[in-house]
Amino acid sequence: MEFEAFDRKMRALEKEFDSFVPADRFLCARLDGRGFSGLTEKNFIKPYDERFYEYMTEAVRHLMSCGFNFIAGYTQSDEISLLFHPADNTYNRKTRKLISVLAGEASGFFSVKLGAPAAFDCRLIPMETKKAVKDYFSWRQTDLLRNSLDSCCYYALLSDGMDYLSATKALEGQDILFKKELLLSYGIDYNALPHWQRYGAVLHYEQIEKKGTNRKTGEPVRFFRRELVLNEELPAGEKFGDYILELMDTALFQA
Ligand SMILES: Nc1nc2c(ncn2[C@@H]2O[C@H](COP(=O)(O)OP(=O)(O)O)[C@@H](O)[C@H]2O)c(=O)[nH]1
Ligand SMILES: [Mg+2]
Questions:
Q1: How many domains does the chain contain in total?
Q2: Are residues 36 and 161 in the same domain?
Q3: Do 233 and 164 share a structural domain?
């Protein structure tokens, strides 16, 4: 078989199951640390560690600066949700390229920060409506609210000498009030914990006003530059979803 025909045949194999996210869908990517329960146990303070949080927010910054057009990146625990700009058409929205490149960028970046191998998986969430985008982000934040309270209680009990199974049993079926009171008995006021531990953090673009000097005239000038900013004071629940939609509307207006 001549090489061209052979090449075509082999390339067709690679493409057989390629799929593309339609341009009219809103799109999110979610990355999640692979086996981070073990990785954090070994390398970070439990249940929350400022250094881990710093690596995660820096990973979001890296992802938002690596060639895609994202409106916002939300991080909570070991996960990152990225909202694509509706006009972003990188790799023609080919799913395998988006998934592999984003997982690769996050994994490479985090590994360098940690100084040891670390990996992220990635999935895509195509959505038909803005309401779905709002619900998606509210849902991820609710996931954090539930997990963070459990996590704090769990580690309080473990540090009190309880074993894994007894701690899990002690929390089973208990409501929020019980868990908050349990924490208070250990001197931990859950409501006073740093905001990011309970609500996560968002990186998004803002037009920042800068001051400079006109080189020719020497006169002071003002100009705007698009910069990534970190919001660590996020609203909760439905309001968080609304906040993400506001960021999207601002980005669409500026485009
Ligand atoms: N030490 C520490 N662990 C964290 C922090 N944020 C998230 N984690 C841990 O990361 C893990 C994330 O859960 P999950 O993705 O379900 O577990 P995985 O499948 O092992 O990656 C949990 O075990 C969390 O306790 C943090 O700030 N500090
Ligand atoms: Mg994980």
A1: 2
A2: yes
A3: no
Cα-flanking dihedrals φ and ψ of residue 9, to 5°? -65, -45
Candidate from 49, 78, 79 with most ligand 1 atoms within 8 A of CB, to mutate:
78
Range of the domain at 173: 20-199
Low-confidence ranges of the chain (pLDDT < 70): 1, 255
Given the structure tokens 């949080």, which residue do they identify? Answer: 53
For the Cβ of 52 lying below 6 angstroms from any atom of ligand 1, the answer is: yes
pLDDT of residue 255: 59
Q: What is the pTM of this model?
A: 0.94
Residue 95 maps to a domain:
yes
Q: Is residue 182 included in any domain, yes or no? A: yes
CB-count exposure of residue 3 (10 Å: 0-12, 13-18, 19+): exposed
Separation of alpha carbons 112 and 64, rounded Å: 17
Residue 85 and residue 192 in one domain: yes
Ligand 1 and 194: CB distance under 6 A: no
Q: Is the CB of 155 under 6 A from ligand 1?
A: no
